[in-house]
Amino acid sequence: MGWLATEFKGNKREIPGDLPVALWHEKVLEYEQRPGLSELPWYSSEMECLTPRELNRLRAKALVWRGETGQWPEEIAWWWEVRMARRRGDIPAMDEIVEARIDANGLLHCGKCDARWSANYDGTPHPDRCKLCDRLWVVVADERTVGC
């Protein structure tokens, strides 16, 4: 008997509350199979740029979010399907600017999603926008100590 492998990608920010990852995965797959998923009473403009498969998965993830938190998701910029559509160029880059800070270890912290980014190994600076939520950064604090 052969195994059927399914591709399932996301990140921890898509999982509501303390829901275990495996249970979240099972619930999303279950919701994807439900009839009427296209008539979801929740909308985000990013949904217009997704492929049908991505849109179905995103709707299922939103239903799991609603089931666990009692609210629809407020921010989906870092959800896998949206990030992939942005990477393909189907969703334009965001123009929102957020404050960021660099901690004592040189890690940059996004002011929107709190993702952490280190400078490149070749010495080039941090990128100008968050690779997770796509916001532009303005660095307001640099806590690195300057060596003698």
Question: Could you describe the 3D structure shown?
Answer:
- The chain is α+β, with helices and mostly antiparallel strands.
- The protein has two domains: 12-88, no CATH class; 97-142, no CATH class.
- It contains three helices and four strands, in the order H-H-H-E-E-E-E.
- A four-stranded mixed β-sheet has the order 3-2-1-4, with no helix packed on it.
- Helix 1 crosses helix 2.
- The longest helix has 18 residues, at 52-69.
- The chain is elongated and about 55 Å long.
- It starts with 20 loop residues before the first helix and ends in a 6-residue tail after the last strand.
- The model has no long low-confidence stretch (mean pLDDT 87).
Radius of gyration: 18 Å
* Helix percentage: 25-40%
Tally of individual domains: 2
Q: Which structural class best describes the helix and strand composition? A: alpha+beta
Distance between the termini: 65 Å
Task: Report the mean per-residue pLDDT as an integer.
Answer: 87
Low-confidence stretches: none
User: How would you spell out the order of helices and strands?
Assistant: HHHEEEE
Number of helices: 3
For the largest beta sheet, what order do the strands appear in spatially?
A: 3-2-1-4
Set down the secondary structure blueprint.
Layout: H1 21-32, H2 52-69, H3 80-88, E1 97-102, E2 108-110, E3 116-117, E4 136-142
Parallel strand pairs: 1-4
Antiparallel strand pairs: 1-2, 2-3
Helix pairs in contact: 1-2
